[in-house]
Amino acid sequence: MRRKLVAGNWKMNGSRKNAQALVEAVKQGAARLKHVETVLCPPFVYLSEVGAQLAGSAILLGAQNLCDKTEGAYTGEVAGTMLRDVGCSYVIVGHSERRSLYGETDELVALKVAAALGAGLKPILCLGETLQEREQNITEAVAARQLDAVLKTVGVEGLAQGVVAYEPVWAIGTGRTASPAQAQEVHAYLRRRIAAHNATIAGEIRILYGGSVKADNAAELFAMPDIDGGLIGGASLHAGQFLAICQAAE
Ligand code: 13P
């Protein structure tokens, strides 16, 4: 039985003050949750404070990115060990915004997954097709290419240490969610592809869905057999919305 996971990706939003209020509200509401695993991924600069605020709660801390290198002269970068140091358990890797806006290639994403594992972090590996790729009917080929780059670098045992998040680019921040059936199809495909390497791991690894998940569509998405929770952007900035999504995963 795979435990459902709901992670909030705040992206580059908020301030110190509203981060504090948001965490407080999420913490209060999440105290009722017994089954779902909950993760908050604030911007780097707020990690320490949010981590301190989460101490004693069951909510885990995650970062939104990390450097593929372990330390040294990499101005502006943050190492996995530093994220561990401030209390992170998870780190988002290869988000489509990193891939498209900051030029992260499949190979770099794979190196970042390796760096996360090396630091003892659980990577949340994001992958998914653009609208153009979906219209060209190459959704599976794109997902396969993105997944295979990581499998080639860290192996299926490495992948098993983290979580996969299917995030169709056309559904991110657009209010246009993949239908449960559309998402399920890709999730099942990813699981089959992982099963070709190791069926046990494929059965155990969690595959999250991300892309305009809201309180009113979360339950039908999470009811699909291969959807093990969500990676939530916009709705994670509102405690009520985020908690309702967590409740749907319960
Ligand atoms: P939205 O939920 O805002 O569509 O963002 C999804 C996402 O990119 C989570 O990483």
Main attributes?
single chain; 250 residues; alpha/beta; TIM Barrel; 8-stranded parallel beta barrel; 11 helices; 8 strands; 45% helix; binds 1,3-dihydroxyacetonephosphate
Describe what you observe in this structure.
It contains eleven helices and eight strands. By secondary structure, the chain is α/β, with parallel strands linked by helices. It has a single domain, classed as TIM Barrel. The protein has an eight-stranded parallel barrel with strand order 1-2-3-4-5-6-7-8, surrounded by five helices. The model has no long low-confidence stretch (mean pLDDT 97). The structure holds 1,3-dihydroxyacetonephosphate (13P). 1,3-dihydroxyacetonephosphate binds next to strand 8.
SSE order and pairing:
Blueprint: E1 5-9, H1 16-30, E2 37-41, H2 47-54, E3 60-63, H3 80-85, E4 88-93, H4 96-101, H5 106-118, E5 122-127, H6 131-135, H7 139-159, E6 163-166, H8 180-195, H9 199-204, E7 207-210, H10 218-222, E8 229-232, H11 239-249
Parallel strand pairs: 1-2, 1-8, 2-3, 3-4, 4-5, 5-6, 6-7, 7-8
The protein binds 1,3-dihydroxyacetonephosphate.
1,3-dihydroxyacetonephosphate binds near residues 210 and 231.
Give the overall shape, derived from the CA principal axes: globular
Query: What is the strand content?
Result: 15-25%
Number of domains: 1
| CATH hierarchy, class | Alpha Beta
Strands in their spatial order, largest beta sheet = 1-2-3-4-5-6-7-8
Separate helix tally: 11
- Under the CATH scheme, which architecture would be assigned? Alpha-Beta Barrel
Helix percent band = 40-55%
Largest sheet: 8 strands, parallel, barrel
The CATH topology turns out to be TIM Barrel
What is the number of E strands? 8
Bound molecules: 1,3-dihydroxyacetonephosphate
Q: Report, as a whole number of angstroms, the end-to-end distance.
A: 13 Å
CATH superfamily assignment?
Answer: Aldolase class I
What letter string, H or E per element, gives the SSE order? EHEHEHEHHEHHEHHEHEH
